Amino acid sequence: MSRSVLVTGGNRGIGLAIARAFADAGDKVAITYRSGEPPAGFLAVKCDITDAEQVEQAYKEIEERHGPVEILIANAGVTKDQLLMRMSEEDFTSVIDTNLTGTFRVVKRANRGMLRAKKGRVVLISSVVGLLGSAGQANYAASKAALVGFARSLARELGSRNITFNVVAPGFVDTDMTKALTDEQRAGIVSQVPLGRYAEPEEVAAAVKFLASDDASYITGAVIPVDGGLGMGH
């Protein structure tokens, strides 16, 4: 049966791979994007998740076209890397506002329809950096680590309503962002990964798709690493 799926930040990279995976399975997929031209084949809604009113309007449009969101993938995020001594207040708060508070906004709004339906699946896209730490990424790591506590609290709060909350923590993924690194930087990263390579976006999407499937109906509050072993022990 075709389900109503929303992927925030679904216009590129991991988000686009996730959107395609659900669309290929026959689901009705909506994506949000903040800038640029969205990919074809989806209900694309321009939305900055740091703006509560834009989030509300995006949901209204999606609900009119696809019905209430049954599966939410909170993927939208930003980085503003900087060493602590050079990190400005804005560098810190803007990353938190998008990655953490923005996730709160989209999850809270999706929850309205899920509570009525007495079912729902929410998957938050965190990062190995949120568990392992990374020099120069204190803001990003803090925002991604916070998603774990957020998801686990909601798993306890809403489990009795048949709504699951899980976290996927990707490692280094072969996207446009990582392609911009030098060969030396890429080699340095790969040397830390037990599997000796970057992840493909589709490998992250496969874990997300599983958590939204019937096979994962008894999984909630979990953190699933898709990191080639980089974060083992965390």
From TrEMBL:
This is 3-oxoacyl-[acyl-carrier-protein] reductase. Pathway: Lipid metabolism; fatty acid biosynthesis. Belongs to the short-chain dehydrogenases/reductases (SDR) family. Catalyzes the NADPH-dependent reduction of beta-ketoacyl-ACP substrates to beta-hydroxyacyl-ACP products, the first reductive step in the elongation cycle of fatty acid biosynthesis. Gene3D superfamilies: NAD(P)-binding Rossmann-like Domain (3.40.50.720). The active site is at residue 140. It catalyses: a (3R)-hydroxyacyl-[ACP] + NADP(+) = a 3-oxoacyl-[ACP] + NADPH + H(+). Signal peptide: none annotated. The gene is fabG. Pfam families: adh_short_C2 (PF13561). NCBIfam families: 3oxo_ACP_reduc (TIGR01830), PRK12826.1-2 (NF009466). NADP(+) binds at residues 9-12, 75, 140-144. One of its GO terms (molecular function) is 3-oxoacyl-[acyl-carrier-protein] reductase (NADPH) activity. Keywords: Fatty acid biosynthesis, Fatty acid metabolism, Lipid biosynthesis, Lipid metabolism, NADP, Oxidoreductase. One of its GO terms (biological process) is fatty acid biosynthetic process. The keyword Lipid biosynthesis applies. Its EC number is 1.1.1.100. It comes from Streptomyces griseoluteus. Residues 3-176 form the Ketoreductase domain. InterPro entries: 3oxo_ACP_reduc, KR_dom, NAD(P)-bd_dom_sf, Sc_DH/Rdtase_CS, SDR, SDR_fam. Homotetramer.
